[in-house]
Amino acid sequence: MTLTMQIDGKAVTATAGMSLLEACRDAGINIPTLCHHEALEPFGGCRLCLVEVEVRGWTQLVVSCVYPAADGLVVRTRSEKVDKLRKTIVELLMAHAPESPVLNELAAEYGARKNRFSQESAFCIHCGLCVRYCNEVKQADAVAFIERGANKEISFLPDIAAKECDSCKECFPLCPTSYLQAAYVLVGALSGFPPPSS
Amino acid sequence: MSTAIPRLASPAELAAVRQQIIAGRDPSKPYIAVCAGTGCIACGARKVVEAFQSAIAEHGLDTEVTLKPTGCPGFCEQGSVVVIYPQEICYVRVTAQDVPEIVANTIRDKQVVERLLYTDPATGQPVVRESDIPFYRHQQRNLLSSNIKLDSKSLADYLAIGGYAALDKTLTSMTAEQVLDEVTRANLRGRGGAGFPAGRKWKGTRDAPADIRYVIVNADEGDPGAFMDRALLEGNPHSILEGLIIGAYAVGAREGYIYVRQEYPLAVQNVTLAIAQAKACGLLGANILGSGFDFDVKVHQGAGAFVCGESTALMTALEGRVGEPRPKYIRSNVKGLWEKPSVLNNVETWANVPLIINNGAEWFANIGTEGSKGTKIFSLVGKITNTGLVEVPMGVTLRDIVYKIGGGIPDGKKFKAIQTGGPSGGCIPERLLDLQVGFDELTKAGSMMGSGGMIVMDEDTCMVDVARYFIGFLTDESCGKCVPCREGLRQMHRVLTRICEGEGQPGDFELLEDLSEVLEHASLCALGKSAPSPFLSTLRYFRDEYEAHINEKRCPAMSCKALIRYYIEPEKCEACLICLRKCPSESIAGGKNLIHVIKQDECESCGVCFDVCPPRFDAIRKISGRIVPPPLPEDQRAFDRSKRR
Prior knowledge:
The complex is a heterodimer. Chain A contains 6 helices and 7 strands; from the N terminus they run E-E-H-E-E-E-H-H-H-E-E-H-H. Chain A has helices at 20-26, 80-94, 101-110, 129-137, 158-164, 179-191; strands at residues 2-7, 10-15, 50-55, 58-63, 74-76, 143-146, 153-156. By secondary structure, chain A is an alpha+beta fold. Chain B is of the alpha/beta class. The longest helix of chain B has 19 residues, at 533-551. Chain A binds chain B through residues 42-48, 50, 61-63, 65-68, 81, 84-85, 88-89, 92-93, 95-96, 116-118, 120, 125-126, 145, 147-152, and chain B through 305, 322, 326-329, 475-484, 486-491, 494, 511, 514-515, 517-518, 521-524.
């Protein structure tokens, strides 16, 4: 079934079952994301892809990667409010990975300051791309989230990583901060399996 | 004493067994109810029960008196609580040592043991009957009043007070639509936090096309200081079960879950037993009471994450996965547990269902305010004279709860604020004490009903520190999935900690406001969306305290350690050595006949000196926001008693 929506003043068609993000990207409208990947289930974690939609006359902020496209929907992918929220999100992440190229590009677009919040360089921004890719696509579960909340981090599971990772490393290019590679080298060094040859 | 209940194949058999149980009981026979809820157990209730057993045996009264460990009546401040019927004599703070006297005097000789009665602080008079105690007198205990009437582990007791009559009525004379209609007309709103109308939620599930539907009890009560649901589940587990079965019938569910936190072992035990009892006699399982309706319930124990009280996180955890909320735009009543339509309601919501069916929607809707119907249980804690569970009709004012029921603030201190709604709720100041409690009323005041926690704060409480505490709690309990909640709360906690430590900066308001905005509008679940409330509500009503911390480095409540100094007034110090000896950091100079002086550069502001200085000397001052007077020169420190009055 074909749906028609109005996105940023433009009429856009989409197929039922698509997310708003997919519909926008199909129409060539760019929405920033950090945790989205076409091969993976939508995660809804980074919240950068939030947009304004009008539902029954009310403006709502929704994240487009999980919001279903719907006929007649009016969408604004940029607004003062959306931009300000995106700016704060980027600033929060830059407390962890101030030199990440992806974050710096976003910072330039939204006017984010890299040192606005006190630095806590954990480098990982918890997008979960590595964890979910390893689970959903490779079904290897060699890397996982451990702990909770502010203490949450990614960790390779040495037993599995020793067997699976050297020949795969497909998650490496997904990482927006290169923290993943560091974590891999670290766990290899600690558990005695050969670190990546080069 | 206990009546064996056979398998009940029809409503008639249920009625017959009920009659038989009631006929076998003599209402004039003395009945000793000992609260065996978690609070009273902590005060030694198990030993009290054992002491009653042996004292009763000693007097040979076994056949003449009934003894029951019961659920919690709510007056936790006065535990262990013992009530003796039919006279309704209420004894408070009972220990095992008091029991022989109670049995000898009250049970055998029909005398009241005056020293164990509650004394009304207003009149100084002892109060005999439970219902005359002011704490209870101003309540309307539709739900909690059953607790004391039954042994929490006895199905016969529940039947004796009319239990499962609502289920009987539902199955024999009501269609599912009629049940839905009744709950909708009663305008029962969810007691777990958001106050969503239960009827609408149920209807959404019933109307959703699906082969399987679920009903779930949310017993993952995690707000600091809240224990309403625990008291209901421990004290009267069958009432929750009955509500759940009725709900399942209304929405067409055949399976249900009770998600209860592991930290509530007694609740787990009692509800598990209740399920086994109900199954054994045909009130649960296949073909309930011969009606053809099948329904089964399982208990699931949570592993201790606050966020699992959030509906989608709870369902994810039930599915056996990490308890994180789902990014959803479809309500769980349409697509919930295992993607099936699922009704999730809080313990207290389910407990109200049998009452609505028995008494009718009009009865329920007659209690309360326009938008909030029925009664609500609050756990009243903090700086309050009567700590405990309080059940009041919606619409009662906060002032009545704090003063009439709660007995006001202890130690002659001044009321400052009441925090309602759990960690994501807010603080309400004194000038709004006449606010009526209700879902919409509390939200309008910048707080919320939440599940019913109420923490009373007095003048010694620093509101910035309160915000810091709750934001810290939420930071610890954030699941970490979405950026605004994980990172936003972490930064917010840092800024608030900095302010409490005297490191606040002029730009902090803007920083905190931006963080609040991103949390409120961009978080994934309700935990994050409501997380800024502790900050926003304290800022709204106590902005001056924030300003004092940031601009003057002063804590008006004299509570933030980094912002207070202690100082001994030389003209009041009697050189008694008490503070000098107790100071853990040994930072008080002085000696026998030498006026004591705090070495400011060594003092850690622990406050021990302030606490131990004898009130008749009252020599120690707390100072915040101004310079400590210079120490007395060493050559002037000799203490001369003759120069004092």
